[in-house]
């Protein structure tokens, strides 16, 4: 296997995953999804067959990678992972021909896989075979190589960017939703016990962090790690409610969990563009790339009703004006009576 392909197949790093739940039971929340996966996994195991291909859809940090690894743990096969955008056709062929029966191939950001690479995936997914060129130039022959019965688990933040035929080849499609504050609080409590060394945290502080995690497990974990550092240096190391509040203020996380990037986005939209702008202009004005805006910043603002997407652009909603202390656009309009 070439070095490049080795790099594509990211090594499974235990430390990176040490806070990740390892089984469906340990995975917090997303009850319907867990129930569905439990059924599919057990049915496949009973039939001694590979699982159908699975597409995991949802904003970043909700647990797509974690679930892919859990599926592999529960099935008891191998786990290989690759990142969609960097993959070329030959890389894919090398990865696929090295898979063993029952292996999970996890492809992150699968919507960013090049179109022709996606297409060469079709026969692999459907008929477990791949066409490979032998030799070079016009005299090159094509040989068909059979593949082991693997399961492709694709993760995407943008399902709509996958072509229809590609989407249809995933027998199981799962949409992850944001977590409740209660679920996030449970996770924060578990993380604080699993950290080395464990960190002492008051229940009220867990709640405070949970409410400011934007319904996202990755944010909860990062907040906990940042606040732990703050408590270590500025206090006794114990995360009391007061220390948590102080630290969150220090890290510029407001009471809704919005960070400086979110607030800059909203205030630019309101102040510079009078509350309505196209993606391109907005991206330039906040010096952020369009993809980060669409995939990281906007989904949560849409969820909490701070933003709407219209054919004429992004529109800031009343609650966003109120939250940032701007007069509502209705109040600012001139009156003619
Ligand atoms: P995604 O692949 O959707 O971006 P990840 O699977 O990388 O998200 O999850 C981000 C982090 O959040 C991981 O470190 C994982 O430990 C944690 N996490 C995600 N979902 C859960 C969950 N349901 N319960 C506990 N921790 C979770």
Q: How would you sum up this structure, described in words?
A:
- The protein has 337 residues and is an alpha/beta fold.
- It has 15 helices and ten strands.
- A five-stranded parallel β-sheet has the order 2-3-6-1-7, with helices on one face. Strands 8-10-9 form a three-stranded antiparallel β-sheet. The protein has a two-stranded antiparallel sheet with strand order 4-5.
- Helix 7 (181-194) packs across helix 8 (203-211).
- The termini are far apart.
- Residues 4-17 have low confidence and may be disordered.
- The structure holds adenosine-5'-diphosphate (ADP).
What is the gist of this entry?
This protein has 337 residues and is an alpha/beta fold. It is built from 15 helices and 10 strands.
Layout of SSEs?
Layout lengths: L2 H6 L22 H17 L6 E4 L6 H12 L3 E5 L5 H9 L6 E5 L6 H13 L1 E6 L6 E6 L4 E6 L7 H5 L3 E4 L5 H14 L8 H9 L5 H18 L6 H10 L9 H12 L4 E2 L1 H8 L3 H14 L3 E4 L2 E4 L1 H7 L4 H4 L5
Parallel strand pairs: 1-6, 1-7, 2-3, 3-6
Antiparallel strand pairs: 4-5, 8-10, 9-10
Bound molecules: adenosine-5'-diphosphate.
What attributes characterize this protein structure?
alpha/beta, five-stranded parallel sheet, three-stranded antiparallel sheet, 15 helices, binds adenosine-5'-diphosphate
